[in-house]
Each structure stands twice: as structure tokens, then as C-alpha cells.
Amino acid sequence: MATLRFDGGEIPCTGDTTVLDALLEAEQPVAFSCKTGMCLTCLLQATEGSVPEKSQKGVKDTLTAQGYFLPCVCIPEEDLELASPNDADLFSRAVVTGKEMLSPNICRIVMEPATPLYYRAGQFLNLRRDDGLMRSYSLASVPHLDRQLEFHIKRLPRGKMSNWICDELATGDSLDIQGPNGPCFYLPDRKQGNMLLIGNGSGLAPLIGIARDALHTGHAGDIHLYHGSRHVTGTYLHGELLELESEFVNFHYAPCLSRDEPPAGYRAGRAEVTAIADFPDLKDWRVYLCGYPPMVKSARQKSYLAGAAMGDIYADPFDLRDLRTEPRKEE
User: Fold this and answer.
1) In the chain, N or C: fewer CB atoms in 10 Å?
2) Is the distance from CB of 97 to CB of 110 less than 8 angstroms?
3) What are the residue ranges of helices labelled H in the chain?
């Protein structure tokens, strides 16, 4: 058994209990979201004691050197003295410079960071409002093409953050940002290789960033983007993607509808099913998956069975805390 010393108290951490679960069981007010080690929302600092190497995977070197780790995946091997993160270590500020509804349920916000942010298209940031509520959102912008940060926020029925952003956040407001995070981004080492991008809902955001990054840096292989929705209104940025397709001969866009009757130019069926039917042999392809978690899981399995190497399948694999007690509906 390890003892956690936090906020003036001592908390036992027994068996296979993670540091985060022990703190939550002790009713400590710690932030968390995905509980899988991906979103970095729950970062804490170990000021005394050593944490397992696994619990620092994905954390920046500058932070691991200060003892930062992911309590959601940390099963402690010794007693730990813990401290809440120092905001100056993790967060910077960004101002909202633009906001518009791209569809009935998708809000685009554009932000200007107070200091330059170095990221890769397809990664995500944690956005935190002044009361401490924090959520993870993928970037739709490309650093060498766009001066500002762009996010596509999907309104969720019970989403505290998404509804606040859609209804109350205004141009000129500021948010804290943390990141960039995530391994889902374009890699330029195989410019002749083909790429398959599959997403639904606001999962389009990182995919359009990845596609634009690849195309504007000279990717020569074919890039196929399948965006799925139940209804036509969910295929936002349809016109922009058609323009991108007309500009680059190696970019191919397929909007897919799983419920509405598809009009001209649309495909019938789920995006991942349609994509794998079109490309049943994905050997040596890179595959990027973003969106509704069950879709990502299904597409990952289908891509692997179609020959894609597991190391060539990239995804945003986390889901937010508010979505776990009630299944999220695909748009």
C-alpha cells in the first residue's frame, strides 16, 4: 500500500487503485476527463517520491523533469507527496477572435494565443474557462497556413462546455489553453503513400487540418477523406471540401449519409463501412480516425483487417467524462 499526501491529508492507495481513483474516493476536488491517460486534464505533480514511467508517457519532457505525471494511469509503487499543477507550467491564455455556427450543432471558434503555440495539425488542446471547467478539443487549423487557432465544437445535449461555448462565449472573451497533445497528426516521411481519413460529426476538424497540412507540404500520394453524418446538415464545410478537391488532384472527398436519402454527390451508408468497401486492401496506407468513439473503434478494426499496420492507424481515442453515463448520439 502507498500513502498519498495531498492538500494536508494522507490518503491510502491500495492494490491496483490509481492515484486518481484514490483521490476521487477521498472526495478530493481534482480535475479529470478521459481517465485513459490521453487528455492530460488530470496532471498532478509529485514533489516527493518517484512515479512509474508509464504514468509520464505523453507528458512533455519539461514537465516530467518537474515531476508531473498522469494520476489516472498511475498505480504508485511508493509513497508520494502530491501538489496541484502550477498554472504557469501548464496553461497560457487565448482570446476568441471569431465565432460562427457552421451547422445547427457545430460552432467554429477562432482564437489568438497570447504567446506563439507550436503544434501539429490534428492535435488537440484542453480549453479551460474561468470556473475551472475544462474539455479537450481538436484543432482544425494548420500552423504554417493559419495565424490563429481554429476549433469546431459540437453541441452535446448535456455538454456543459459545448453548450456554454455555443450559447454564451463571445468574441473578445479569453480562455486558458493547455497543450498541444495527441499523436494524431500528419507525418511527412512517406509522401508517396496513400492516406485514408475517416470521421463523423466534429471529428472532421482534425482531419481537414491533417489533409491541408499534407497537401500544402507536397504530399504526392492519394488522400481520401470520408465524412459521415446521419443528416445532410451534419456534413458541414461541404463547399470548402469540394473546393479543396478541385484544387488538388490527389485529394478525394466523400460525404456519407447513414439516414437521409443521399443527394447528388453524397454516398449512402456509414463512413467507415463505405470507406473500407471502396478500399479493401490498406496495406502500406496510413489511416486517420476521428469522431464518435464506437465509429473509431469499428473503423480501427476494419482498417486492421483490411491490411493496415496497427502502427499506421492514428486516432483520437478518448471520450469525455460527460458522455460515459449516457451514450452520445451520432449527428
Assistant:
1) N
2) yes
3) 19-25, 61-64, 87-90, 160-167, 204-216, 238-247, 271-278, 293-305
**pLDDT of the chain, 331 residues: tens digit per residue:** 899 999 899 999 999 999 999 999 999 988 888 888 888 889 999 999 999 999 999 898 889 999 999 999 999 999 999 999 888 888 999 999 999 999 999 999 999 999 989 999 999 999 999 999 999 999 999 999 999 999 999 999 889 999 999 999 999 999 999 999 888 999 999 999 999 999 999 999 999 999 999 999 999 999 999 999 999 999 999 999 999 999 999 999 999 999 999 999 999 999 999 999 999 999 999 999 999 889 999 999 999 999 999 999 999 755 544 433 344 444 4
Domains of the chain: 2-88 (3.10.20.30), 89-181 (2.40.30.10), 195-323 (3.40.50.80)
3-state SS assignment for residue 256: strand
Q: Are 314 and 286 in contact (CB under 8 A)?
A: yes
Question: Can you give the pTM of this predicted structure?
Answer: 0.86
Q: What is each CA distance from 152 to 140, 203, 228, 279, 326, in whole angstroms?
A: 7, 9, 15, 28, 22
| SS3 call for 216 | helix
**Cell for 128?**
479551460
